[in-house]
Design brief:
Distance between the termini: 9 Å
Largest sheet: none
Strand content: under 5%
Radius of gyration: 22 Å
Length: 329
């Protein structure tokens, strides 16, 4: 039994929350608290932002508070606003999850996390001028000003795709919809609004008045950061997410392929002062990624320690089992 308890602690230290939650009831006489914390940790590792605020009675308040900062509100008027107030905590968690997946050699979910980071990166860039992280309940009136083509479906002078036009149109009114409509919008369209905003700021060939609300002193800087956000979505690393099935199964990149793709991605991004941040050797498994995200945000965004702290809390709860207390006979 002593070896079994040590195994459970090893699983906690490896962030294997799902396995630990499944095995603990077989070893411990009272595993309810452990299972509750493991479910909380697994939601974080899986980046299940819809459920970060789910009730977890056994989780310390400090950990739940940090998770709620990354939570995506499930209703138009839900408070607090979590990731719609600021994306910085969510990106810190993303970076920590990417590092954990890398060290566990879980490269498919790691690339999926990188892909999520690429989809919402334009909103992180816009946060400095919006004062929030793309909350549809708080869009500036100027986005829909006279002569603005933002959200005008079928507007041929607009560089947005049809899907982006539809998403932009929806975001201007979704705050008045019922919770189920709100959730459907975030499931399918919010990331397209992020891309649409970046296009307005950095890639529009026929600018309208949609961006006139941005203070003139901030426009050039925003344009550069939005341009890098768009470029990141087109890098070799992000494109690994869309790799076609190969051989007799689905293609999962090797560590060498991931690092090679990231090397090429860093070279492609190093085109301006913001993109140059990616060349920083910051000790991350994908060197320069936290520095790049910080540069796009215009503020420091470092990997969180939320998953590590959940792991440490689980180890603390499991320690009494090492002395033989609470083990199943």
């Amino acid at each position: 039994m002593d070896s079994a308890a040590h195994l459970l602690i090893a699983l906690a230290q490896r962030f294997a929350f799902g396995d630990l939650g499944a095995l603990a009831p077989r070893v411990l006489a009272d595993a309810e608290q452990i299972v509750d914390v493991c479910e909380f940790g697994q939601r974080l590792l899986s980046l299940d932002a819809e459920d970060f605020a789910a009730e977890a009675r056994s989780v310390p308040v400090s950990l739940k508070r940090r998770a709620r900062a990354c939570h995506m509100p499930q209703a138009p008027r839900e408070q607090p606003r979590g990731a719609l107030a600021s994306l910085k905590p969510a990106y810190s968690l993303l970076l920590e999850a990417i590092a954990v997946r890398w060290h566990r050699r879980e490269l498919s979910p790691m690339i999926a996390a990188v892909h999520i980071a690429s989809e919402y990166l334009p909103l992180l860039a816009f946060e400095s001028v919006l004062g929030h992280a793309g909350d549809p309940a708080r869009w500036p009136d100027g986005l829909n000003a006279r002569a603005s083509r933002f959200g005008v479906i079928g507007e041929r002078e607009c560089d947005h795709t049809k899907a982006e036009q539809s998403a932009a149109n929806r975001t201007l009114r979704v705050a008045g919809e019922r919770p189920e409509g709100w959730r459907a919008y975030f499931d399918r369209q919010h990331s397209q609004v992020a891309g649409a905003l970046a296009t307005c700021a950095a890639a529009c060939r026929r600018p309208c008045t949609a961006m006139h609300w941005v203070p003139p002193a901030a426009r050039d800087d925003l344009t550069t950061r939005a341009r890098v956000a768009l470029a990141f979505a087109e890098t070799s690393l992000v494109r690994l997410r869309h790799a076609a099935p190969v051989g007799h199964g689905f293609g999962v990149p090797s560590p060498e392929e991931v690092l090679d793709a990231w090397t090429r991605s860093r070279a492609s991004l190093d085109k301006n002062p913001v993109g140059h941040a990616v060349t920083t050797e910051d000790g991350f498994p994908l060197p320069g990624l936290p520095s790049l995200i910080s540069a796009v945000a215009g503020a420091e965004v470092r990997p969180a320690s939320l998953l590590a702290d959940v792991s440490a809390h689980l180890a603390t709860l499991l320690t009494p089992a090492l002395a033989g207390a609470g083990l199943r006979e």
